[in-house]
Write a structure and sequence with these properties.
The protein has 11 helices and 10 strands. By secondary structure, the protein is α/β, with parallel strands linked by helices. It folds into 2 domains: 136 residues, Nucleotidyltransferase, domain 5 (2-Layer Sandwich), CATH 3.30.420; 171 residues, Nucleotidyltransferase, domain 5, CATH 3.30.420.40. A hairpin with a 4-residue loop joins strand 6 and strand 7. Helix 5 crosses helix 6 and helix 5 runs parallel beside helix 7. The longest helix is centred in the C-terminal third of the chain and has 26 residues. It is globular and about 60 Å long. The relative contact order is 0.19. Zinc ion binds next to helix 4.
Length: 345
């Protein structure tokens, strides 16, 4: 089954062609990051306009990369929310137009479901099945899995019982991890987006230079990063004697310590057979390394998408859409974009 995937929920315009929720034939991502960088964050109206201007060309490029055309598609999957309303509408409208014109099934995907589904895609190991899996075409999911989704808008702990059965058991009470990194970078005058900049700079700094607070929230699986952000602001405003690389390393370490410890604790609690990582912050070198070490110590298999599939892309939306269609989900042409769509599967 060949799916066309479309993603425009924030500042990436992306179209992909994916077979059987697994094999990526193309995955074209046009980032608007340079456009928004001078504003220090995503400007919704500008994002929508850029999506409108580029969606046609990105669609053509994705079909050309895959050496195919719309007539060869079996269905269309598109992000229906959450995200910026105007941005979402561009991809959704393109998907509905294609579904109508080519008489294809349409399925709306929750953006976070898409991030989780990046783990179901072939991950650059040449389709090598994970240990114990029946074959290269099989889903690499070993349920129940516990997935930590860390993006610019979400920090969620999700129990994955099947490719379409997701249950959020923990979430951030204030800033998302990516948001904390982006705002932290702004405080340190490092530019936008802050996640990759802090991740890179942290490699040259001392992670124990500044004892930043960790909000463990005992007895809860939730996260909180606003106290940490305030602590960084106070440190910077009081003329910190520490080099900026030390501040970045200590700040990132505080975030990663909590993410890793709470993920492993939750995995133990729910009897997870596998841990997964997803979302833009899963591209972090430190988070990937620390999660690998912790899972190896706990004897838990870990799956992390390649970096390009951690940040927003349409292949992950096509992967989630494939499993939704297989489970009998299909949306009508009155499907709407919902900016704060809850994850209910
Ligand atoms: O999933 P994503 O692309 O978009 C949302 O759904 O929000 O995540 C974007 C977030 C941003 O906060 C960005 O700073 C962060 O992911 N990010 C990273 C890295 N690459 C992107 N954070 C840490 N290390 C990275 N290499
Ligand atoms: Zn995302």
């Amino acid at each position: 089954m060949r799916l066309l995937g479309i993603e425009t929920s924030c500042d990436e315009t992306s179209v992909a062609v994916v077979e059987d929720g697994r094999r990526i034939r193309s995955n074209v991502v046009a980032s608007q990051v340079d456009v928004h960088a001078r504003f220090g964050g995503v400007v919704p109206e500008i994002a929508s306009r850029h999506h409108v201007e580029s969606i046609g060309a990105i669609l053509a490029a994705a079909l050309e990369d895959a050496g195919t055309d719309l007539a060869a598609m079996d269905a269309v999957a598109t992000t229906a929310g959450p995200g910026l309303q105007g941005a979402l509408l561009v991809g959704l409208t393109a998907a509905k137009s294609i579904a109508f014109a080519c008489d294809l099934p349409l399925v709306g995907v929750h953006h976070i479901h898409g991030h989780v589904a990046a783990n179901f895609l072939e991950n650059g190991e040449g389709g090598k099945p994970p240990d114990g899996a029946p074959g290269a075409d099989a889903s690499p999911l070993r349920p129940p899995a516990l997935c930590l989704v860390v993006s610019g808008g979400h920090t969620d702990l999700i129990v994955v019982r099947s490719e379409v059965d997701l249950d959020v058991i923990g979430r951030t009470r204030d800033d998302a991890a990516g948001e904390a990194l982006d705002k932290g970078a702004r405080v340190l005058g490092l530019g936008y987006p802050g996640g990759p900049i802090i991740d890179r700079l942290a490699q040259q700094g001392r992670p124990d230079a500044v004892p930043f607070p960790r909000a463990w929230l005992p007895g809860s699986r939730d996260f909180s990063f606003s106290g940490l952000k305030t602590a960084l602001l106070r440190e910077a405003q009081s003329g910190s004697p520490h080099p900026v690389a030390d501040l970045a390393a200590s700040y990132l370490q505080a975030i990663v310590d909590v993410l890793v410890a709470k993920t492993l604790a939750a995995a133990r609690d729910v009897g997870a057979r596998q841990v997964m990582l997803a979302g833009g912050v899963a591209a972090s070198t430190l988070l990937r390394a620390r999660m690998e070490r912790a899972c190896a110590d706990a004897g838990l298999p870990l799956r992390i998408p390649p970096r390009a599939l951690c940040t927003d892309n349409a292949a992950m939306i096509a992967a989630a859409g494939y499993y939704l269609l297989r489970a009998g989900r299909r949306d009508d042409l009155d499907l709407n974009a919902v900016a704060n769509l809850p994850l209910i599967t």
